[in-house]
Each structure stands twice: as structure tokens, then as C-alpha cells.
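Structure first, sequence second, as always.
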């Protein structure tokens, strides 16, 4: 920028000399020469007009040694627009230019322009001072910006680092304050959500293990107790058979529970393979209903299905059959005799909605959000009496979601429950 500024000064000096040349060429006389000298008298530049041999005709000020040395330099040839004689503003006293002028078509002499380098250096000094001030301001703002960024970015990151260290030690009591809507805020919320989910998983795992130990202990206690009684030699055969029947019944419950746990374990480990195929939903459902009909008739219950004939879905028939069997079995257990179960199938926004509606006992509102959790029972004693494991609805939910579907339940105590399943319809 300094170099550019000096070049601007030299160009301006040369232009001023060319202007004086134009005036001389228009009217070359003593009055014009005097007028040019007077013009430069109070300016920050000096002018010297010479003849062809560089003899001074007029000067705006008295020449000093440095100006005489510049005049003595060889200047031939000089182009019409002039040229720069001296541009060493750092080491010399003057910068200088020369412009030739002509009278009556012939070159008459030269117009020399001088400008003190003190003025140029003063200008450069002011320019440097401005840049120094700008640099100080810039550095100050940069330091303030770094401090601000350190506080607004580094401090939250340190807090989040400490939070993740707590999570790694198994301490899930982590809560980070809201840090805004930017990426840091999203990361903070994600860590808080992760901590909450991990805490929930830890509690769920503890509850799950406790439930398993309790559910396994109950039938094993029955089996062991009645087996000890049945081994006694002084009991009647009729009582022995009754005890053996109880042992067999509890063994069946235990086998069902282990089977359900095995299925859930495979789903959790993503080893539960789904073999999808194109299925005509209505005929598929009617086939399942026919197999379940004896169980409904045994309790005097009706099973009705309302379904169109042209709905196709991509499902695993064996896996999805387990969904309906579990839901039907659930409806039979928790409904009174001579009630009715309805199945409705319809299209809804590109999906197929399957409603299974019973007239059973219903589910309390406070239990609805937990109904699909493992080992959760609304009425534990009733469920055990009927042989339930508390895993059936968990398996139903996992199987539906494995088919990229979703399941919900609506219920009212004393009025029954409705299970709603959405799965994607297969288009032709």
C-alpha cells in the first residue's frame, strides 16, 4: 500500500507538470511563465522551467544542491507525457518528474516538477499510524472474540465432556442446561436424552431381571413342592395324579415363558429373521380365525371379521400369525363369556389399519403406556391364574415393528380394549 501511495504521488506530480506544459504551449510568454511560478509558490510542489539546454528560465523557489543534481542528470529522450526522474523517496530529498514543451512545433525546453520527500514520508508515517491503530483494534477484538468463543464453546464442551465421563462410569444422573438452538444446544440435549434413556434401560434391566427371577421361581417352587409330595409312598394314586397334573401344567407354563424369552432375545439381537411374502390379508385373517374358533366357542364368544377382499401386504405369515394368536388369546382371557370380538380391516393414508376390538374388562388409563413392557401385568394374580407370562404383548409389539409397522391400544375399564395395527399396503 505504501508503494501504491508513492506511485500515486509521482503520477500526480507528473500530471501537474504536463498541465503546466499545456499552458506554456498555448501561450508562451513572460506573463505565462510568471503565472506558473506564482501558482507553485504556495503549493507543496516546486516547478522549474528551462530551455532546451536546461538553462533555468524561471523557478518557483530557490534551487538547492539536491535539485541542481537532479537537473544535471541526463534526461534524453523524454517522451511527450514526460517521465519520472527521481523516485527514491526513502533516501533522497526530492521526488521529481520532467515534461517537455514545444513552441511553434519545435521543442523549446522542459518543465521540471519537484516534491519534498519529507511530505511523502509524513504521509507514509500517517498511513502507518492508521494501520498500527487498526492492527491494535483488530488484535484487541480478536482477543475478545477468542475469550468469548472460549466461554461460549469451550466451557460447554468441558461440561459435556464431564457429563459423558459420568455416563461412562455408570452414573446417569446427568442434566445439562439448555444451551440454545445451535449445534452445541442439540448436542447438549442429545446427551441429556441419552442419559435419561440409559437410566431407563438400567432400571428396566434391573426390573426385567427381578421379574424373570420371580416368574421362574414361582413355577419351579410348584414343581419342586408337588414333586416332593408326589414322591411320598403313603399317598393315594388319585392325589398323586392330581399332583403330577399340576407339575405338568407348571412345566408347560415354564416352557412357554422360556420360549417367549428366547424369541425376545433373538429380536433384541437382530437374529430374528423375517421372511416376507405377498399375502392376501383378508383370507389370511379368516384362516387364523377358523383355527381360533374352537377356543372362542368354548367360552361362548363370537368372532366377527369385516375385511375387503383386495388388500395385499408383505409380511412373514408365520411371524404375523403369532401377533394375532397372542392378541386373540389375550382377548379370550380378559373377556367375559358370551361377549364378542370384532376385527376391522381398512385402508388409511397408504397403510392398512387392523382393529381388534373386544368387550373385555378393559385396561386402566394409568396402565396403558406400560402395557407393552415385558412382564408388565395390569392384574398380576389374574394373569398368573390364567397362565400368562407377561411377555405376549411385548412380543406382539416387537414383531409388528420388525415389519416396519406400529401398534397402539385404546381401552376403557368395563368397556373393552381395541388394538390398532398399521402396516404398509402392497400396491400392485
Amino acid at each position: 500500500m505504501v508503494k501504491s501511495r508513492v506511485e500515486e504521488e509521482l503520477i500526480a506530480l507528473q500530471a501537474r507538470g504536463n498541465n503546466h506544459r499545456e499552458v506554456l504551449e498555448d501561450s508562451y510568454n513572460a506573463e505565462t511563465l510568471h503565472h506558473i511560478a506564482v501558482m507553485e509558490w504556495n503549493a507543496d510542489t516546486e516547478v522549474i522551467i528551462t530551455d532546451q539546454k536546461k538553462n533555468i528560465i524561471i523557478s518557483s523557489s530557490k534551487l538547492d544542491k539536491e535539485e541542481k543534481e537532479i537537473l544535471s542528470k541526463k534526461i534524453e529522450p523524454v517522451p511527450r507525457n514526460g517521465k519520472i526522474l527521481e523516485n527514491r523517496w526513502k533516501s533522497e530529498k526530492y521526488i521529481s518528474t520532467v515534461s517537455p514543451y514545444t513552441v511553434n512545433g519545435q521543442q523549446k525546453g522542459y518543465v521540471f516538477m519537484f516534491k519534498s520527500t519529507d511530505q511523502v514520508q509524513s504521509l507514509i508515517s500517517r498511513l502507518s499510524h492508521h494501520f498500527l491503530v487498526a492492527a491494535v483494534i483488530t488484535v484487541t477484538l480478536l482477543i475478545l472474540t477468542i475469550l468469548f468463543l472460549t466461554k461460549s464453546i469451550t466451557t460447554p464442551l468441558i461440561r459435556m465432556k464431564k457429563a459423558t465421563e459420568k455416563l461412562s462410569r455408570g452414573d446417569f444422573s446427568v442434566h445439562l442446561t439448555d444451551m440454545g438452538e445451535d449445534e452445541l444446544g442439540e448436542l447438549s440435549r442429545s446427551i441429556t436424552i441419552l442419559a435419561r434413556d440409559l437410566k431407563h434401560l438400567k432400571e428396566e434391566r434391573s426390573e426385567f431381571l427381578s421379574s424373570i427371577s420371580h416368574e421362574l421361581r414361582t413355577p419351579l417352587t410348584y414343581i419342586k413342592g408337588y414333586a416332593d409330595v408326589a414322591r411320598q409312598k403313603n399317598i393315594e394314586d388319585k392325589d398323586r395324579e392330581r399332583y403330577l397334573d399340576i407339575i405338568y401344567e407348571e412345566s408347560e407354563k415354564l416352557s412357554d415363558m422360556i420360549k417367549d424369552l428366547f424369541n425376545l432375545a433373538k429380536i433384541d439381537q437382530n437374529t430374528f429373521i423375517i421372511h416376507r411374502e405377498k399375502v392376501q390379508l383378508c383370507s389370511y385373517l379368516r384362516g387364523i380365525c377358523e383355527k381360533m374358533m374352537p377356543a372362542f366357542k368354548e367360552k361362548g364368544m363370537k368372532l366377527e371379521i369385516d375385511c375387503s377382499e383386495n388388500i395385499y401386504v408383505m409380511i412373514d405369515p408365520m411371524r404375523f400369525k403369532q401377533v394375532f394368536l397372542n392378541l386373540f388369546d389375550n382377548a379370550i382371557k380378559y373377556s367375559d363369556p358370551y361377549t364378542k370380538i370384532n376385527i376391522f380391516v381398512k385402508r388409511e393414508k397408504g397403510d392398512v389399519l387392523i382393529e381388534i376390538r373386544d368387550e373385555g374388562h378393559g385396561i386402566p388409563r394409568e396402565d396403558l403406556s406400560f402395557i407393552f413392557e415385558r412382564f408388565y401385568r395390569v392384574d398380576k394374580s389374574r394373569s398368573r391364574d390364567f397362565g400368562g407370562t407377561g411377555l405376549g404383548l411385548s412380543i406382539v409389539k416387537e414383531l409388528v415393528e420388525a415389519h416396519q409397522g406400529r401398534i397402539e391400544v385404546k381401552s376403557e375399564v368395563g368397556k373393552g380394549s381395541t388394538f390398532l395395527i398399521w402396516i404398509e399396503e402392497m400396491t400392485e
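Margin note: Residues 380-387 have pLDDT under 50 and may be disordered.
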